[in-house]
Amino acid sequence: ALSAEDSETAFCTLANREDLNLEEGSVQYCLYQFTRNEKLTETNKLLCDVCTQMHYGPKKNIKNEKKYVYTNARKQMLISLAPPVLTLHLKRFQQGGFNLRKVNKHVKFPEVIDLAPFCTSKCKNVAEGETKVLYSLYGVVEHSGTMRSGHYTAYAKMRNMNNNLSDLVLRGQSSQALETEPVKGQWFHISDTHVQAVSAAKVLNSQAYLLFYERLL
């Protein structure tokens, strides 16, 4: 059961979600939808042990499930621990009857993304008072083709080592504040044995399937 304090902060985030200027078809929009506040009503009502005990007494007195009390509730999935490396997997298939279809729509993704609007206000490894949880893009996996056949290629950024990542992995927190700009480096496109230097603009225009970000702040 939640305490009164937990109940008050259960749906609070590090940064105000409603201030976001979201563009449909972007990764931020996807995250917003994935972490939206859902109402559980009618057939989705939540079985409430407290309500049941108040109505029928202790559980041992309940002999069949029909006597359990179900109540309206709210549900929200938020990030409780900001990872050192953020991996986002985009669902690029759609089911229609018995058929699966590849989704080729371009999903916009930034070089630097802020997870604060999607983190619980009590995120375990974020400093008190911090309202940003920033990540810098360093890798993209792209799939071309259809559900039946296709080809995977990757974009990777050659950059200086982010020493603070080891602090995040080993101690759960960074030893110092990091830059809020993308980590500087050169992007490369890797396709089997072929490697070619490319611009950041080409990377951001790719049809991403997997996105890899490293923690900045």
From TrEMBL:
Protein name: UBP16 hydrolase
Stored Pfam families: UCH (PF00443)
InterPro entries named in the record: Papain-like_cys_pep_sf, Peptidase_C19, Peptidase_C19_UCH, USP, USP_CS
Superkingdom in the source lineage: Eukaryota
Encoding gene (name): Usp16_1
CDD domains: Peptidase_C19K
Keywords carried by this UniProt record: Hydrolase
Native species: Psilopogon haemacephalus (coppersmith barbet)
GO CC aspect terms: cytosol; nucleus
DNA damage among keywords: no
